[in-house]
From TrEMBL:
Species this chain originates from: Microbacterium kribbense
Family, per entry: In the C-terminal section; belongs to the class-I pyridoxal-phosphate-dependent aminotransferase family.
CDD domains linked: AAT_like, WHTH_GntR
Domain of life from the UniProt record: Bacteria
Name of the molecule in the record: Aminotransferase class I/II-fold pyridoxal phosphate-dependent enzyme
Keywords (A to Z) from UniProt: Aminotransferase, DNA-binding, Pyridoxal phosphate, Transcription, Transcription regulation, Transferase
Length: 436
């Protein structure tokens, strides 16, 4: 065999393939040598080559195609949240909040202008820090924690994983999982271990199995899980804490993205003796995605590592943005609007779930901006039928960690008026009837 791939360890072999791909010597669709053949060529154990291929698969650089072998992947982008580009269809898969329910920052803007912040000054605005301390202490006390401000929840999770993991390390993600979580793990080169979700959130058996596989971090959504809308029950959270009690140094990241909008209580899976933890709360769902700010409370060691990645004057979050966030969070009218928005999202989801049940479809409204709808047929086939009726929906396979033909759709329906909601429910039932 004449192969340019080199290396004696899994990491060296994976890096060699990366280099060849970057130099254009390996292109999308090119086949890599079979594991046994490459192992013999390099004089290494077959498990070493298999581990290298797993690293490359996790990073999205190669695809394993069964009898088709392992091939260089086409660097097509992963699915992203938001509106679909260039479509005339009614998009009910956006995952967006309703812009009419986001507080208008215009009146608060003049108050946040002030003395410019210079290099070397504290990276967290004092007023926001004080407010956030009380906000998160209510759910973290009596654990000691420190605050960090990042450019949104995705930025926080990416930085948290980067300070704890190295390429090839295993991270437990919910399955189905939020889209940015899948992309963050793939771009970081981490090995993802799926943990199933049911109506009460992350399953105990799933987390137990993931820990047995040596995961070094766990990312959990305590409420309004995206895409399912599931929230942890008190009982489930307690059971998960018991499982994690034997793994106190596994980093547990709780992404409480819906926080102030949620209609469910917060239940943490972090026990009092857990040593590595982070609670992340973004403002994007209630103050708008463009605010790009999240507050993270983490154990002191994790916070110290995060601080090294948020240098004053270079990668900090703008103090103007921090001041504006604080001004809105302490404004009575803005908080009342946020509360009303949370109630609106819940009511619209419940109303649409009832419309689906009338049509003979099994649907239960969870928490959050979306509805996770089970369909008794291939979700892709149902989606195609919906497109013929003028609707664009997201299929559940986009949110899965492993390729699968899902039987779920994720729908964003809170901005539909009553007539459109009835039409979508009827069209969905008709689409299922054709696809089944």
């Amino acid at each position: 065999m004449n192969s340019p791939i080199a290396g004696s360890t899994a990491t060296e072999i994976a890096d060699s393939v990366r280099d060849l791909r970057e130099r254009g010597q390996l292109r999308a669709g090119d086949a890599l040598p079979p594991v046994r053949t490459l192992a013999e060529h390099l004089g290494v154990n077959r498990n070493t080559v298999a581990a290298a291929y797993r690293q490359l698969t996790t990073a999205g650089l190669v695809q394993t195609l069964g009898r088709g072998g392992t091939r260089i992947a086409d660097p097509a982008p992963l699915a992203q949240e938001g509106f679909a580009a260039g479509t005339v269809l009614r998009d009910v898969g956006t995952g967006n909040p309703d812009p009419t329910l986001i507080p208008d920052p215009t009146a608060a803007l003049p108050a946040v202008m002030g003395r410019p912040v210079l290099y070397g000054e504290p990276v967290i605005d004092a007023a926001l820090a004080e407010w956030s301390q009380d906000w998160l202490a209510a759910d973290l006390a009596p654990r000691e924690f420190r605050l960090t401000i990042t450019s949104g929840a995705v930025d926080a999770v990416e930085r948290l994983l980067a300070q704890a993991l190295t390429q090839g390390d295993a991270v437990a993600l919910e399955d189905p999982c939020w889209l940015a979580g899948i992309q963050t793990a793939r771009l970081g080169g981490y090995r993802t271990v799926p943990v199933p979700i049911d109506a009460e959130g992350m399953t105990v058996a799933g987390l137990t199995a993931a820990l047995a596989q040596g995961v070094r971090a766990v990312v959990c959504t305590p409420r309004a899980q995206n895409p399912t809308g599931a929230s942890l029950s008190d009982r489930r959270a307690a059971d998960l804490r018991a499982v994690l009690a034997d793994h106190p140094y596994v980093l547990v990241i709780e992404d409480d993205h819906f926080s102030l909008l949620s209609q469910q209580p917060f239940h943490s899976i972090v026990g009092p003796g857990h040593r590595r933890f982070a609670l992340v709360r973004s403002v994007s769902k209630f103050l708008g995605p463009d605010m790009c700010l999240a507050v993270t409370a983490s154990d002191p060691q994790t916070a110290e590592r995060l601080a090294l990645r948020l240098s004053p004057g270079t990668t900090w979050v703008s103090h103007l943005l921090q001041r504006l966030t604080h001004a809105l969070l302490v404004d009575d009218d803005a908080r009342a609007q946020i509360t009303a928005a949370g109630v609106h999202y819940a009511q619209r989801a419940q109303a649409f779930a009832q419309l689906l049940r009338v049509q003979g479809l099994d649907a239960a409204a969870g928490d959050g901006l979306n509805l996770w709808v089970a369909v008794p047929a291939s979700a892709r086939s149902v989606s195609e039928q919906l497109m013929r009726r003028g609707w664009l929906a997201r299929t559940g396979d986009e949110f899965r960690l492993e390729a699968t033909d899902s039987h779920h759709l994720r729908l964003t329906v809170h901005d539909l008026d009553d007539a459109d909601a009835r039409r979508l429910a009827a069209d969905l039932a008709a689409a299922v009837a054709v696809a089944a």
